[in-house]
Amino acid sequence: METIYTIDSLNQKIKFLEAQQDKEWCEIKDEIDEIKENLKPLNLIRNTVEEINETIGFKSDIAQSAISIGIGYLAKKLVIGKTDSTFKNIFGSIVQLAVTTLVSKPQHQNVSTKESSQYETSEE
Question: Where are the domains of the chain?
């Protein structure tokens, strides 16, 4: 640690440390936002599907679609269960379609324009 002898150098050091604190606080906020995004149920499901694909080695779109449909079917069974009601069956099918569609979308579409512009500038 350097010794500070003048008021000017003390003020400069204070400004430097405040700027460093602001920068670190922004980085912490960004990290918290990223954690919150990763903990959303849809992203948890999507990440699980991606890990299954990587582990088992599914590369084809057909295999990924089959997994998405299977997850949609499971969601329908969890939400609706077994029923003879026509309304519940229609609602379950809508839930199944929605979950299947959301899970099958590539995750990189959720990246905000701010993040994508950061990637572009860092690559240049």
Answer: 16-107
